Amino acid sequence: MYQQQYNPYGANNEIVKGYLKSGKVLTLGILHLISIAVSVISTLTLTRVNLVYDYSDILRSMGIDPSDVLISMNSSLGGISASMIAGTFFSSLFTLLIAIGFIIMFAKSRNDHPASNPSAGVGILRVISLITFICAIICVVLLVILFIAAYFFLDYFVNNSNMDSRSATIIWIACGVFILIFSFFFLFITASYKNFYRSIKRSLNTVDLHTKGAAAYGVFNIIGAVLMGMATLGTLITAISSFSAAALMSLVSNALSFIILIMTASFALGYNSYIKRQKYSYAAPYDGGPAGGAYYPNEPYDAPNPYAAPQQNEPPYQQNNYPEYQAPRSAPGFCPNCGAPVDGATPFCSNCGTRL
Fold this sequence. Notes:
Layout: H1 8-20, H2 23-45, H3 48-54, H4 56-61, H5 66-76, H6 80-110, H7 119-151, H8 154-159, H9 165-205, H10 214-242, H11 245-278, E1 333-334, E2 341-342
Antiparallel strand pairs: 1-2
């Protein structure tokens, strides 16, 4: 075990490392790597040809020739494969950075050396969360612009369709409500995502421990896991009924996303509870505090100052047995003027008044 002089930064570093070296962090990194493999396999194998032939029975039951659908897709969506490959490439790169961030956090936290700091992995995840938050803001702004622009085209939609003006207005208002709700939750989720990794970063680099955004991020991941679980169940029913390659790959992808959401929620909520338990554990409790841990009701005023100079234990003052000090007195003599005897402590002669 490495020994070093106490400082609050080092104490926080060890506290956060104690949680980041858990198996949850490594599991999340591995799961994101697996999701990259699943995404690449889906893109390379499930081309539009596979999709058409997987659903050929359904198309035939609808009176549609699958070969005609394939010819139509080749003529009208010739660049779909290139678009899918480009989208898969960028999403896989994004996911790879997330996996690297988790793996670096785990590796640095497993190292007991005081200089080993998981800030690099946390920094990667914080940058990704910040990019996600900025993209969310851009998407919300674009949706609001489209919603406002749609108002000026209501008359065009009414004149070129069988819809009356009242129905078009109701649909426009419903879309506005949906955009409002979606924007609120989307921004709140990405903001909690950003604040969570910012809290970990601040806990490593400041004298305080932070948990802002951890609980909210965990709760939103649980909500997402519930929705993804419902989607996975629907995909499972489809895969059992059709037993197609497209349905199977979709089932694997949805199930993997469900597991990642559950693990992420466990990671965020676990960090929140762990930091709150360990927040005061690096200092000794004062008299009257709960046994086994520090407790400062008026913290930081009651908490010990880590920068204060160490107190010196001085020995108590001891009373000695020496006699009380007395000023020396002059010896008795005679007045030089009249010769009368005088006391050595008297400044004048008592007989003639001469100054001695």
